[in-house]
Write a structure and sequence with these properties.
Elements (H helix, E strand, L loop, with lengths): L3 H15 L7 E2 L3 E2 L9 H13 L8 E5 L5 H8 L3 E6 L2 H14 L4 E5 L7 H4 L2 E7 L7 H14 E8 L5
Parallel strand pairs: 3-4, 3-6, 4-5, 6-7
Antiparallel strand pairs: 1-2
Helix pairs in contact: 1-4
């Protein structure tokens, strides 16, 4: 395990280079990526519970895809529950922060890939027990939304969780 000083120095450097984290992710030595804001992660808990309830296997036997994973909070939590998890994020800054947390937490069952969610395919990533698509669809043009929905349908064997904003 890394020392408290090394983790804090890494956080400080990443924040200097790439800005603050989106989420407050717990790390060893009671260090949090945003300083322990004590904001409950109700969305995270709700999505984890939904996948646990609706997948036919325990999380430790599931394969999870987290699209638009930002700095990795959902991906990290699924990996901490034992799931083989892949997080896809287009922004380099978010991927660097997510990989830092993954390495600090020593999560061998977690992979982060910098890529555009519109480029995912069953050929490149395989199939998943559950796909989390949170906060993405409203950023995409309509034709890309429908293509992504078709691809996600092909890639999931059990559950697709879509969490998005809707507007006229």
């Amino acid at each position: 395990m890394e020392t408290k000083e090394k983790i804090e120095a890494g956080l400080k450097e990443l924040k200097r280079q790439f800005g603050d984290w989106t989420y407050d992710i717990p790390l060893p030595h009671d260090i949090w990526t945003r300083g322990k804001l004590n904001i409950p992660h109700t969305r995270l808990k709700r999505i984890i519970q939904t996948v646990e309830d609706l997948c036919t296997s325990p999380l430790c036997k599931c394969r999870i895809l987290d699209l638009g994973c930002l700095d990795g909070m959902f991906s990290i939590e699924f990996a901490l529950h034992g799931a083989e998890t892949v997080g896809i994020e287009i922004r380099e800054a978010n991927i660097k922060k997510a990989i830092f947390c993954k390495e600090i937490l020593q999560l061998q069952n977690l992979t982060f890939r910098q890529d555009d969610v519109r480029k995912i395919s069953i050929e490149s990533l395989g199939k998943f027990d559950a796909i989390i698509c949170s906060g993405i669809l409203y950023h995409l043009p309509a034709e890309d939304v429908f293509r992504l929905l078709r691809v996600m349908h092909q890639m999931t064997t059990r559950l697709l969780v879509i969490d998005t904003h809707i507007a006229l």
